[in-house]
Specification:
- The structure is a homodimer of 289-residue chains.
- Chain A has 289 residues and is an alpha/beta fold.
- Chain A folds into two domains: 167 residues, Rossmann fold (3-Layer(aba) Sandwich); 112 residues, Rossmann fold (3-Layer(aba) Sandwich).
- Chain A is built from twelve helices and ten strands.
- The first copy, chain A, has a six-stranded parallel β-sheet with strand order 4-3-1-2-9-10, sandwiched between helices. A four-stranded parallel β-sheet of chain A has the order 6-5-7-8, with helices on both faces.
- In chain A, strand 3, helix 4 and strand 4 form a beta-alpha-beta unit.
- The longest helix of chain A has 17 residues.
- Chain A is globular, with a radius of gyration of 18 Å.
- The interface between A and B is medium-sized, with 27 and 27 residues.
Chain lengths: 289, 289
């Protein structure tokens, strides 16, 4: 992408078409993820903000971001965000922990609309939930390597201790549909046992796919550990933002959901659909070239 | 990529620079894969053809190809192949089962040099190895969905029966470095037991990552099943091609290996390095834009 030019011209378009009246802003919330995991955030947004329209873009042609470098994730995120601006998005939600960890500040600097990631809301919820001040974080290799959760937690409360663990097998297990399987339980324990031994009392599910394993993780860790779901907390942060910026949808609006992907969907869309109970109509295909 | 133009102009360049003398062709063999799994093919090429130079390109910025659509895999393969032509490759090896399954014929039509995939050599070796005529094939979702191995086997011998199974968790397990682990054994048995029950006596490892699990698979399946490694057979096919086309390297040449990736390497490069015992010098970074 030749980023600078299109972003500036899009900004003009958006300002021109923003509604002048004060009865609400009908433009959609733009949501993106490297793939389809971000639909967990969409599901929470739909529950919390039923009259907001949502345009979701999953970069399935280049999924996953979780093992890629910061420079590449930043480039991909800017490209995807520019497609959301073309759709007249009034605000952008980065429904991907990897992109939030590696690209949020670049997006904030370069985009003409507000940007909400999943990390700050998740970190806030975790510091609220912890009793012993020891928080576990699981995510992709890139998210964990970035140290973004540790920084966010430390900014909120210097006394908090964080134990982080990359869990690269969880996304493939979820995409295989093995949500309740002995093998998945064993992989989870391999990853989570060291965090348990370390004494965490709160665990951040730091990848938008992971809420689909919430039941399994909850069963394995028991009541002693509070699970913090970045999807849920991100949706709450978006709601606060819309109020603060005065860009809520008109009250009479019935929000719709449009889903576009950069590569045709495979069977994981069915897994997500079933597990999230989302009404997804026809999926559009958006080419990146 | 605007493919047509650059490919044609590159063809001219290559023809101009091809050696007219008959004492061998010093140009490198170009090898590509979606990531680093194709180094298993490079390892076999190095053993078999020590005086050939190799330029390896791994598309780590967009890895994996295994869950993506034919159109996207074809586009990525043409883009990567054009970078190999820029490196003056005398022939191109598609060291990736997914790209071989979905893009080989497009590459053959569009490239000015010969192209060798991993599927035909693997299918040939499997039909040679089977005694009961029942061959199992494992690979990525895209490879298995394409039916490329079934077609290749049927073309060689109509009497052969194939049982194919997509094994999307194996690549992530290998990249995690869990080559010998109880969990990997359980995942393997989940995938392989139905093929065993079905009565196969030969199994094609239809993904260039899988040779790294050869020991584990051999231990689980025992002597009753012959394992066919696409890497080994692809290298033999390349050797035959070089002789047939009269483009072998000069006998006095000491082949070198250059490795380039589209995204900086992560720890899997160490896994591959150790398991394959390959001398990899400094890894170049090649941007796709």
């Amino acid at each position: 992408m030749e980023a600078e030019e299109p972003l500036v011209s899009m900004m003009t378009t958006i300002k021109d078409s923003a509604p002048a009246e004060m009865d609400g802003d009908p433009r959609p919330i733009g949501v993106f993820d490297s793939g389809i995991g971000g639909l967990t955030v969409v599901s929470e947004l739909r529950k919390l903000l039923p009259n907001e329209s949502i345009y979701y873009l999953g970069d399935t042609a280049r999924v996953p971001y979780g093992g890629k470098s910061p420079a590449t994730v930043q480039r991909y995120s800017l490209e995807i965000a520019s497609l959301l601006l073309e759709q007249n998005a009034k605000t952008i939600v980065v429904a991907c922990n990897t992109a939030s960890a590696l690209a949020l500040s670049v997006l904030e600097q370069r985009l003409p609309v507000t940007v909400t990631g999943v990390i700050a809301p998740g970190a806030q919820a975790a510091t609220n939930a912890t009793r012993n001040g020891h928080i576990g974080v699981i995510g992709t290799r890139a998210t964990i390597k970035s140290g973004a959760y540790e920084r966010a937690l430390c900014n909120l409360n210097r006394g908090v201790r964080a134990s982080a663990r990359a869990c690269p097998l969880l996304v493939p297990l979820i995409e295989e549909g093995w949500l309740e399987s002995r093998i998945t339980d064993e992989v989870l324990m391999e990853y989570l046992q060291p965090l348990m031994d370390d004494g965490i009392d709160t665990l951040v599910l730091g990848c938008t796919h992971y809420p689909l394993l919430r039941t399994a993780i909850g069963r394995l860790l028991g009541d002693a550990v509070t699970l913090v779901d970045s999807a849920e907390n991100c949706a709450a942060a978006v709601k606060r933002l819309l109020v603060r910026e005065n860009i809520e949808a008109p009250r009479a609006q019935v929000g719709d959901l449009r889903v576009a992907l950069t590569d045709p969907p495979d069977r994981f869309l069915d897994v997500a659909h079933e597990a999230l109970n989302l009404e997804i109509g026809e999926v559009q295909l958006r080419s990146m070239t």
